[in-house]
Amino acid sequence: MKSKWEQIWESLKDPEYRRQFIDEHVNVGIAFQIRSLRNRQRKKQSELAEMLHIRQPLVSSWENPNYGNYSLNTLKDLAKVFDVGLLVRFVPFSSLVDWEVNLVPDMIAPPSFSEEQSQAASKSLNVTSNTETVKDIEKFLSAAEPDQYKFNAEVSPHA
Amino acid sequence: MNKEHIFYDYVDQNGANLIKGWLHGDGKSARARFNLIIDNLEGSPPPGFMGSVWTPSYVYDLTGDWKGFLEIRAEINKKEYRLIGQRQNRNILLITWGYHDGKGWHTDITPGSAKIRVSQMITNIGKYGREHEI
Hints:
heterodimer; A: mainly alpha; 8 helices; B: alpha+beta; 7-stranded mixed β-sheet; 4 helices; 7 strands
């Protein structure tokens, strides 16, 4: 059986499906992203509407995969409110297929800048604590009998 | 890459993928939208988890005789196409389709037949199910 990537690629050989695929990649993808981002950031539709100075039913429409009428300005405003990046580029079809095949929650609702920043900070803390652990082990080994933990290069662990 | 969910299509006893057959036939104009919705749902957390989207307008829980089933809707040129299935934990079993033409809801099978298809898929997914085909 063909992989999902191969199946999509095969379908894209039909120009009509290719055109629909671009439309739906934007329409469906954006609708899912808006709803997922709003959920992730625990915002109500009414709160999002208030932040954007629009009415709540419009937010509801944006979250509908059958809406399909987004303007670039709307997307830029949403990126600002959610504090996430926005990428609008012409790309090869293989990039679109890669995106579809590999969709996971963090791609649908990416972390905001502040979330990314705190994730980066906690990663850096982990590096520090790992460094401390290595130092502790070195201290322990140096206090032990000199040859007790010495690596014997002549003995292969797989022998 | 591990998906959050997997969609399966119903396959009849002759080995024909009925869902794929419909999406390439009468449901052709909704095919790309359904496939993209399925991709996004497969990558979305289950109901109750942060960021979950297993709610309208992505997935609708059916009521009445169809209680226990869910549907995905795609409106194309004022005609609403629907794919109907049932959730079994992280697996979604797609068993039939239908459409709404503004006046009423139309499908070829009864809720009873739909339930039979689900039980066939649950008991023998190797024979009656196939991972959703584009």
